[in-house]
Structure formats: structure tokens, C-alpha cells
Amino acid sequence: MRQYSAFAVAREALRYHRGWERAWGNPVPRTHYDTLIIGGGGHGLATAYYLAKNHGITDVGVLEKGWLGGGNTGRNTTIIRSNYLQPPSAAIYELSRGLYEELSQQLNFNIMFSPRGVLMLAQTEHEHRAWMRTAHANRLAGIESELVGPERIRELCPIINIEGPRYPVLGGLWQARGGSARHDAVAWGYARAAADLGVDIVQKCEVTAIDRREGRVAGVRTTRGTITCNRLCIVVAGHSGVLAEMAGFRLPIESVALQALVSEPIKPCLDIVVMANTVHGYMSQSDKGEMVIGGGADGFNNYTQRGSFQHVEETVRALVETFPIISRLKMLRQWGGIVDMTGDRSPIISRTPVENLFVNCGWGTGGFKAIPGSGWATASLIANGADDVAGPFSLDRFAVGRMIDESVAAAVAH
Ligand SMILES: Cc1cc2nc3c(=O)[nH]c(=O)nc-3n(C[C@H](O)[C@H](O)[C@H](O)COP(=O)(O)OP(=O)(O)OC[C@H]3O[C@@H](n4cnc5c(N)ncnc54)[C@H](O)[C@@H]3O)c2cc1C
Questions:
Q1: CA of 293 to the centre of ligand 1 (A)
Q2: Closest listed residue to residue 123, CA positions, set 82, 152, 162
Q3: Ligand 1 within 6 A of 296 CB?
């Protein structure tokens, strides 16, 4: 595939942009692949890319029922950070954050990574102590994050109401190298690079059944025919339970709607990401000037991609008290995604009771930041049968009680 570059933009400008190639093909699915991946979101596409790039496995098909990134990957609020509490989480999220830093160059696709810094406010004594503990844990894990006081917060974010009508801002956990990236571009960049290495990316191809023979997956039935495979990996976020049921086992996953909204665009006034967990809301400003706002997940299981009205109200109320200057902004759009929640709020990257079937799910409200690291680790697990980073996230932790408790890190949707 021809390189994207400033020179290429100039060349195409001179010939009316008639020379651009398709970013990825539109193949008719073959009847057999060595490795099949169900789900064309960020995690599925990154897994396909690293299978080809790191392990030379290119006989791979990615089956997506809709369009690439049409699930949570294209619906999230794009916060990237790695300041998690537990060592296994710190390892995978920091691997991911590090990969994000060079992803545009690696994929030759501008994913618009913006390391603008992420600030998590502490608005109760309890929260302050929790962030202090996380800051210490991060230092031990070699992750840059620091506990900051109200004065520093005032400098970082002049529009915050430090005194607050309900909860004063006592401090915060600041990760200067966290930030955001363009979500669609992450999916498109991985898709283009994977396709360039020989991976088939098949859109509008829904998996409707999984065929098993003698304890192994033989293949899948899809809306575009039956496809056999040697290995299968399910990477479908909120639909993980549905796909696992097709394969004959259950996952400890609950699916709920999580929602976000954006305001009309305004002049630049917020150049970091701020999360206010106690009042429950978070906000950043997009390059276009819109305030990108995220709130909590629904308190009941559902498969709707809309979310409930009460969360919009709660989130807006929380953010108006944290940032009073937004009180007269008009909201432009609201949407929801179906997220896959585990009991310990950590993901599952694992083998399954079916011998040649792998699963990657349980990223809940925070898997966008993990896409590169998760794809890297999942590809290694599929190729080698084991992986150090993926290891702790195996399914058996729920049977033996080896939880990776990140419920504090996931206190607010992120
Ligand atoms: C509103 C919202 C805000 C969020 N904010 C953040 C954030 O700020 N930071 C962060 O790190 N994370 C955030 N997240 C979480 C993040 O978006 C997800 O964890 C991540 O995108 C999951 O990626 P994925 O590739 O696993 O799933 P998805 O992107 O959902 O991809 C799964 C794909 O599987 C496909 N699929 C499903 N069933 C089938 C089938 N039967 N056959 C074929 N294909 C199928 C779907 O169509 C979908 O495209 C947020 C999520 C939401 C909803």
C-alpha cells in the first residue's frame, strides 16, 4: 500500500485527488481461514494487525456485522490513561499508552493522539486517600502520575469551580502523558495496516452460529455463508455473552448501556481531560470546540444503544456545578454504546472451555485506551498459547477468586 505523507497530499492535490487507493479492500469471505476474529472494533482489528505484524499469521479474517468501529470504538469519549491501581492493569494499560504514542507512525495513519493530560478530581477525603494510594502504586509500577493540590489544579484548569457548591476540590490524580485520540481513526488505521499485511476485513457479515465438533470450534455460520477455521477469537464487547452462548458456555459479563453527549462548539477553554468521579461526570474539549461529556452506565442490564434520560440529567448537573461556565451551552448530540462489565471491572483475555476458542472482552467503560496493548497481548496469546500480559486476565480468575479489583479506577465511566 502506498505511504500516506505530506508529499502524497501535495501530489494528489495536483491531480484532483484521483490517485488515492481504497484504505482496505472489500473481500468476499473465503470458506476457510487459519484464524477468525469476530468483531471489527478496535480490539478485534488490533488483534488481527499484531497477529500479522508480530507473529507472521496473515491467514486471518475479521468478521464485522455492521461497519468498522460502529460499536463502542466509534462511540466512546476517547480518554487514554494508564494510572490504574493493580499491577496487571498497570502493565497492560501502560503498554497500551506507550504504543499509542507512536501509533500514527507505526500504522502510517494519523490517529490524532493528543497527550494533553488527564486529571481525576478528588472531592472527598476518601477519594483523596484512594488517589494517594494509586499514585504510590503507579510510582512502584514505573508509571508517571502524581497527586496534585487545588493550586496546581487551578493552573491546569482555570474553569473549574474549586470550592464547588456540594463538594470542594481537595486535589487530584494527574497523568500528564494521558490524553485522547480520534476513535474512528484508531479503527481505520488498524484496518488499513492489517489489510496491507494480508488480513481480510469483511464488513456486513454477522456471525449467527458457532459450529463445534469434539470440543473444538469447527467454524461459524454467518449472513454471508459458512466459514471454517483453525482458531476463533470472539471480540464483540457488549455482545460477548450472546456469542459465548452460541459456543456453549457462559461468561461473567453484564451488558449495559453507557452514554455520552457533545455540546455546540465554543472557543478553546479546556486543554486537558477532567474526570469528576464524586459528582459523576467527565469532560474534554474536541479539536472542533465541542465539549465532549461522558457519564455513568445504566443501572440495569440492556442491549440498547441509546441509554436512559436520567443519566443525561445527572451528568449535566454534575458538570455544571464543576464547570459553571458551561451552564448555558446547548447540547448537540447524545448517544449510547453497550459495554461489557465484569464483577472486578477488569477485562478478560483468555482461552475458554472450548479448546481453540479465545475471548477478549470485559473492557466495560474503559477499553478504548487499551486497544493497542490488548491487541498486542491477545495476538500473542493466540499465536503462542500464553502471554505474560494477558495471563492475569484469564477466565479462571473468577473460579479461583483471583480478582483484579479496579472498581475504584472505574468509579466513573471513562
Ligand atoms: C459512551 C462511551 C464512552 C466511553 N468512553 C471511553 C473512554 O473515554 N476511554 C476508554 O478507554 N474507553 C471508553 N469507552 C469504552 C470503549 O469504547 C470500549 O471498551 C471499546 O471501544 C471496546 O472496543 P471493542 O473493539 O472491544 O468493541 P466494539 O468497538 O464494540 O466492537 C465490537 C464489534 O463487534 C461487532 N459484533 C457484535 N456481534 C457480532 C456478530 N454476531 N457478528 C459480527 N460482529 C459482531 C459489533 O458490531 C462491533 O463493531 C466508552 C464506551 C462508551 C459506550
A1: 17
A2: 162
A3: no
Which one is the CATH code of 118-181+255-341: 3.40.50.2000, 3.30.9.10, 3.10.20.30, 3.40.50.150?
A: 3.30.9.10
Half-sphere exposure of 308 (CA within 13 A, CB side): 13
Mean pLDDT of 208-212: 98
281 lines ligand 1 (CB under 6 A): no
Q: Measuring CA to CA, which residue among 349, 358, 363, 362 is closest to residue 391?
A: 349
Q: What span, in angstroms and rounded, lies between the C-alpha atoms of 242 and 251?
A: 9
pTM reported for the whole predicted model: 0.97
CA-368 nearest atom, ligand 1: 11
Confidence of residue 95 (pLDDT cuts 50, 70, 90): very high
Cα–ligand 1 centroid distance for 239 (angstroms)? 9
pLDDT at 233: 98
Region 334-343 average pLDDT: 95
- Ligand 1 pocket, residue 235 CB under 6 Å: yes
C-alpha–C-alpha distance, residues 159 and 112, integer Å: 25
**372 CB within 6 A, ligand 1:** no
Q: What is the mean pLDDT of the chain?
A: 95
Q: Is the separation of the CB atoms in 65 and 331 below 8 Å? A: no
CB-ligand 1 contact for 40 (6 Å cutoff): yes
Report the atom number in ligand 1 closest to the C-alpha of 374.
Answer: 26
The residue whose CB lies within 8 Å of the most ligand 1 atoms, and thus the one to mutate among 76, 77, 305, 341, is 76
Per-residue pLDDT reduced to its tens digit, 143-153: 999 999 999 99
- Band (219; pLDDT cuts 50, 70, 90): very high
Of 3.40.50.300, 2.120.10.30, 3.50.50.60, 3.60.15.10, the CATH number of 26-88+183-252+344-400 is 3.50.50.60
